[in-house]
Amino acid sequence: MNNNLLFDFTVDKAAKTVFITREFDADLDLVWDAFTKAEFLDQWNAPAPFTAKTKAMDFRVGGRRFYAMISPEGNERWAIQRYTSISPKTNFKMFNAFADKDENPELPGSEWDYTFSEQNGPDGYPVTKVNITIYNESLARMEKMIEMGFTEGFKMIMTNLENLLASLSQK
């Protein structure tokens, strides 16, 4: 296991954008699947003690993922993601917004841009780098999300993903 993996999280309020770079000790195919398939997303895409549940997902340009983060008490916080661009194994973009249980988005939302690349790590095994850019339509929305713990929550889900990838890589 490579313990020298990059994790950078930068908030640029002037640009209303969050920049994240994260390396994973796994090959590109597995990391891509973890970000684009509901059965994997539901295993890592919520900070503890919350869990994620995908109600619908159609990963194609124009498709969407509609999912909830569920608290231990059973409270659901829904979000909808609409895929706007997909270049298999290298990039996808989506518009993300909170929503009600009937898929009505709560605007404003944010635009997410994911870029994936693979390189050899220092131990000779592949390392996959994921660059994520999150542009917020509203500075107030971005500031509220950060105030509500977005930074800490995102770091937690990246750890969840790292653990899932380690588990899947051993199979």
UniProtKB/TrEMBL annotation:
Pfam families: AHSA1 (PF08327). InterPro entries: ASHA1/2-like_C, START-like_dom_sf. Residues 26-165 form the Activator of Hsp90 ATPase homologue 1/2-like C-terminal domain. CDD domains: SRPBCC_CalC_Aha1-like. Signal peptide: none annotated. Belongs to the AHA1 family. This is SRPBCC domain-containing protein. It comes from Chryseolinea soli.
